[in-house]
């Protein structure tokens, strides 16, 4: 393998300087600032600060509302990642079976990803609004007492559905690419040997999609933890009764609404540690089971 060489030692640093600058300004500096702010107690206007060490962390971890947010986040993240990936895989497999108009169907299934999270949340809220929602009326006709504005479980189901729908297109795109990379000769050979469509999928197709699935598992985990803020804010605002208040939404609520700056900073540091630990766990233990053929 030929190794790339540069005529001058400064050139490689100049090439990566924009990315380093962006990472420094938008990630490392805010992370350090949040870490420092988490050790302070500030008034709402930032006029007086007191160094309190780890007091904010102890207060946050002892708060029942924060423990509830952790539980809500775990349920929300797992179900959102599962449904968005499962539905996307099903649609990708079905789209590959289409003979005519395959490109059209792929384009239509990718479009929802262009919708902003807040807009996606509003769409689902309007469709399932208990007063005038077009999809809420059939539920009431079926005898279901549908009101996600008052029922916590229904509200959780609604935000999971909205968040999953928003992410399906992204997962679909990668699953289609993964399916196209699988040699057709393997599937044809299995069909000749008498393997049915289900057996071909679970013994050949699905194992060969492991690298794609692992990548999407990491991406969907981060998406559920961070990028769903707009959906939750638009649909439920963390309610009813904090039933849909995830960790990232609680950071916003305590910091920007209640102006508890030290507590909010401590929560952001904990959330950052959770994401780093979760990603490291996925690469340390789950990636071992991934076969890169």
TrEMBL record:
Predominant location category: membrane
GO terms for biological process, alphabetical: transmembrane transport
Protein purpose: Part of the ABC transporter complex UgpBAEC involved in sn-glycerol-3-phosphate (G3P) import. Probably responsible for the translocation of the substrate across the membrane.
Compartments, record wording: Cell inner membrane; Cell membrane
Keywords on record: Cell inner membrane, Cell membrane, Membrane, Transmembrane, Transmembrane helix, Transport
Family, as annotated: Belongs to the binding-protein-dependent transport system permease family.
Protein name: sn-glycerol-3-phosphate transport system permease protein UgpA
GO cellular component: plasma membrane
Domain of life assignment: Bacteria
Alphabetical list of PANTHER family matching this protein: BLL4140 PROTEIN, SN-GLYCEROL-3-PHOSPHATE TRANSPORT SYSTEM PERMEASE PROTEIN UGPA
Residue ranges constituting the ABC transmembrane type-1 domain according to the UniProt record: 70-282
Bilayer topology annotation: Multi-pass membrane protein
Subunit structure: The complex is composed of two ATP-binding proteins (UgpC), two transmembrane proteins (UgpA and UgpE) and a solute-binding protein (UgpB).
TM stretches of this protein: 12-31, 69-92, 104-127, 155-180, 201-226, 265-286
